[in-house]
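Sample intake — Putative Low molecular weight protein-tyrosine-phosphatase
Collected from: Nitrospira moscoviensis
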Amino acid sequence: MKSEQALPLILFVCTGNIFRSMAAEHALRAQLGRYSPYLVGSAGIEAKPQAVHPIVRARLIQKGIDPAKHVQRRLTAELIQDAALIIAMGYDHQMHIAQAFGRHAPLFNQVSSGSETPILDLHEALPEWERDLEAAKAYVESIVDHIWNATPTLMARLPQFFG
């Protein structure tokens, strides 16, 4: 049974909850503003204890978001149950949510632009990222920028999920 909430919860899901879903959570919360009609959260399907990478943190700070208080959390049945809309960052997250919890989760890019493309994690986009740290940094920054820039369109499309 769903717990009682005053506002619908939008939940972003990725692997570790320290990069993509966390950036999406903070971008949406910041751009919705103080009087948001939604609660916004994020979780990771693995969420092994680790800190937000300094590159992610710095890019969010440039956007006016301080992720210092972000609490990494693992995706649970309770979070799934409480969520009115679950948004997956990648295909693997989408499949995990369907298989483990029986819920459909559209991809971030589906909701924000109608594109059926995932937002890849660093190791998926650049398997040998450790050999080119500048390319890795540029990729991470581009993903945070993409999420930030796509958020207004995502916001405009949210009512179709709550109609």
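Post-analysis note: The domain at 9-161 is CATH 3.40.50.2300 (Rossmann fold).
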